[in-house]
Write a structure and sequence with these properties.
GO terms for molecular function: CDP-glycerol glycerophosphotransferase activity. The protein is α/β, with parallel strands linked by helices. The chain is built from 18 helices and 14 strands.
Length: about 400
C-alpha cells in the first residue's frame, strides 16, 4: 500500500476507534502525557507531568514515548511512570484515558489514532509565537516542507462534504490550548481555528521552576539560540551567512571573560566543516539538544531572532536581545511574523554579527527595560502556573 493509502486507512481507523469507544468508558483520573513527536522528554507537558505526579497521587499519570532512552530515564525516577507507545498496554491506556497532554498535537506526541472519542485533549503548546503558525502560516502560502508538515490526501477529497464533516465531528476530541496572555489567546484562536472558550489563559509549566530560581547575573555565559530556517532537518550555516568571524568573536569573549554557546533549532544543523572549525575556539561552544529549560536560568544573556524563547526569557527575567538577522529574507522565504522585531524590542536591532557584538557590550553594561513587552505576553510572575492549570483542568473535567 502506498503512502496515500496508509493515510486514508489511518483516518478510517480513527473513525472506527471513535465508534467502538462509544462502548468503552474513560477511566476517571487517568492522564497521559507526551511531547515532541513522542521522541523527547521536555517542554510544558513534561513539567506538568512531573507536577501532577508529585502533587496529585490520586491521579494516574503516565508518560507515553517511542524513545527507549526516555522510557528508561523516566521509569528510573521515583514516583514517575512511562509506557512505550506501541505496546498493547499503551493501546489500552489510550482507549481509557480521561485526559491527555501534549505540546505539538495529540496525533504526533501520543498515539492519537487510538484515543477514546470522550478523551479531553489539553495542548499545552511549546511557546508564544513571533512567526506565524498553524492556519495563519498555511494561509500565507508558505510551503508545507518549510512548516514541517507533510502533504496528505484525506478522506475529504474522497467523500461528499456533508459525510466527511459528520465523520470529522464524530471523531474529533474536545481540545483546549494553553496561552500565556490574552494577546497569545487571540493568536491561537486564529492559528488553530478554535474559539475563545477553548483557550486556557495561564503560565507555562516549564517556566515555573525558572521563575522561582535566582538569576545568574554574572555567570559569564551567553546563549545564541535562533529559530529554524529553510526546510525541516536541513543544514544551515547561520553564522557565516551573517558575518560570524570566530577569531574576532573568540577574542571579544576572552576580553570580556565570557563564553558563547551556539544552539541551533533541532530542525537545523551547522555544516560539519563549521563544527570542526569551531572546536579550535575555546570560548565558543556548540550546544546539544538536551532540554534547554533545565539550564536556561544559567545564562547571563540570551540572543535569539524569531523564536518564542524571547518571551520565555522575559518571563523568567533573563536578559535577552533580539537579533533578527536576514529579516526581509526570512519573511519572504520562511514565514511572515505576527509582530515586527521593532515592536517586540524597541531598541537598536543588530542585522549581523559585527553589529551584534557591539549591542552585546552595551546590553551587558546597562540592560534594557522590556517590562511592557513582558506584561503583554506573560501574566504569571510567581511560578505557580502548574498549580493553577490543574485547578482549571479539574473544573473542565468535572463540569
Amino acid at each position: 500500500m502506498g503512502y496515500k493509502g496508509v493515510v486514508v486507512l489511518n483516518q478510517l481507523t480513527k473513525f472506527f476507534i471513535a465508534f467502538i469507544t462509544l462502548f468503552i468508558p474513560v477511566k476517571r483520573g487517568l492522564f497521559l502525557y507526551g511531547s515532541w513527536f513522542g521522541n523527547k522528554y521536555g517542554d510544558n507537558s513534561r513539567y506538568f507531568f512531573e507536577h501532577v505526579s508529585r502533587e496529585h497521587p490520586e491521579i494516574e499519570s503516565i508518560w507515553i514515548t517511542k524513545n527507549q532512552g526516555v522510557l528508561e530515564q523516566i521509569n528510573n525516577q521515583t514516583g514517575l511512570k512511562a509506557v512505550e507507545q506501541g505496546s498493547f498496554k499503551s493501546l489500552w491506556l489510550h482507549l481509557r484515558a480521561q485526559a491527555v497532554f501534549c505540546n505539538t498535537s495529540q496525533e504526533s506526541d501520543l498515539w492519537g489514532l487510538v484515543l477514546n472519542r470522550s478523551t479531553v485533549v489539553f495542548n499545552l503548546w511549546h511557546g508564544t509565537p513571533i512567526k506565524k503558525i498553524g492556519l495563519d502560516a498555511l494561509d500565507s502560502n508558505i510551503s508545507k516542507e518549510k512548516l514541517g508538515v507533510s502533504s496528505r490526501t484525506t478522506l475529504k477529497a474522497l467523500l461528499p462534504k456533508s459525510i466527511f464533516l459528520r465523520m470529522k465531528r464524530f471523531a474529533n476530541k474536545e481540545t483546549y490550548f494553553l496561552a500565556s496572555s490574552e494577546a497569545v489567546s487571540t493568536i491561537l484562536q486564529s492559528a488553530m481555528g478554535i474559539d475563545k472558550e477553548h483557550v486556557i489563559i495561564g503560565g507555562y509549566p516549564k517556566l515555573d521552576h525558572l521563575i522561582k530560581a535566582p538569576t545568574s547575573l554574572s555567570s559569564g555565559k551567553i546563549l545564541y539560540a535562533p529559530t529554524y530556517r529553510g526546510e525541516y532537518n536541513s543544514e544551515n550555516d547561520l553564522l557565516s551567512e551573517f558575518g560570524f568571524d570566530p577569531v574576532k568573536v573568540n577574542s571579544w569573549l576572552s576580553e570580556h571573560d565570557k563564553t558563547l554557546t551556539i544552539r541551533l533549532h533541532p530542525a537545523n544543523a551547522l555544516p560539519q566543516e563549521k563544527l570542526v572549525e569551531l572546536k579550535n575556539f575555546p570560548k565558543i561552544i556548540v550546544g546539544d539538544n538536551r532540554d534547554l529549560y533545565e539550564s536556561l536560568k544559567d545564562y547571563e544573556l540570551v540572543v535569539t531572532d524569531f523564536s518564542s524563547l524571547y518571551y520565555d526569557c522575559l518571563a523568567i527575567n533573563v536578559p535577552v536581545l533580539l537579533a533578527p538577522f536576514g529579516l526581509e529574507s526570512y519573511e519572504k522565504n520562511d514565514r511572515p511574523l505576527y509582530f515586527s522585531p521593532s515592536e517586540l524590542y524597541p531598541y537598536p536591532l543588530a542585522n549581523d554579527w559585527p553589529q551584534l557584538i557591539t549591542e552585546l557590550a552595551e546590553l551587558l553594561e546597562q540592560g534594557k527595560d522590556l517590562s511592557d513587552i513582558k506584561r503583554k505576553f506573560y501574566l504569571d510572575s510567581k511560578g505557580n502556573s502548574s498549580r493553577e492549570l490543574m485547578k482549571t483542568i479539574n473544573g473542565i473535567l468535572l463540569g
